[in-house]
């Protein structure tokens, strides 16, 4: 074989590999169920709409379920598993406030009736998160599918991997980098706090005992502190507070305006102003009324949805999302 022919064949192989990497880098692809369950996405959307249309406040918990799944063992549906002999992720303290499991179960049941044993719970989580956001005036995006369900779920791994509302910018950077997410992803995905509520316990220290001396967090607007103190008394861990006051049911860019005004609810929100890149993104979105936020959020959600996925023959397709087969 001539040298030129060898080089040409090598180039063909390189091109083929690059195409394969680009189109199927994580074993995921658009239209994955087109032949095996063509109605899958429409069933997921219709069933999700049945819940979110009646209770729009479910959108935030359903989005959060996908976040909490992907940050522990990757997007493998492990957050849905019930504890057995050992405690599962959903019993970890950060996950005790998770809601929406009944929606996922209903969606899975509807999909199973149409296509038994085909669509994974991990894929359902990703689709429900997308559909929930779009149903409350947020962006929509194409979700690459083909995730398999994991068989392992450990409480300790949830504690070790989930980003905390008490994290500073260094901790957030390390946490996101460990998942292959960068500082822009951090700033963008934090924008998910534009919807939903939080228990007072997740930020109460900022109001009453920030450094252990009975003080408040100096990085929080004092007027906002006063407002929050009316809702959250010392030691209150059960009262719910809107994360984006006034529009917590609508997916919009108001979150960034609040952060620039030092009215982000969590330490992790305030931390975005401690890094040049995240601070610039926050102020830009606030100044342009979130002109690129929807697009950016869609891109970062697709990226997060590829973290640590199981594909091919890995894992399984659960029959019931709360139990391994």
Keywords:
single chain; 325 residues; mainly alpha; 2% strand; hydrogen peroxide
Please outline what is shown here.
The protein is an all-alpha fold.
Structure description:
- The chain is an all-alpha fold.
- Helices cover 46% and strands 2% of the residues.
- It contains 14 helices and two strands; from the N terminus they run ααααααααβααβαααα.
- A two-stranded antiparallel ribbon has the order 1-2.
- The protein is globular and about 55 Å long.
- The chain starts with a helix and ends in a 21-residue tail after the last helix.
- Mean pLDDT is 92; it is low at 1-24.
First CA to last CA: what distance? Answer: 53 Å
How many strand segments?
A: 2
SS element count, helices: 14
| Average of per-residue pLDDT values | 92
Radius of gyration of CA atoms, rounded to a whole number: 21 Å
Reading side by side through the largest sheet, how are the strands ordered?
1-2
Structural class: mainly alpha
- Bin the helical content: 40-55%
Uncertain runs: 1-24
Give the amount of beta strand, in percent: under 5%
Q: H/E order of the elements?
A: HHHHHHHHEHHEHHHH
Q: Mind describing the biggest β-sheet?
A: 2 strands, antiparallel
- Shape, please? globular
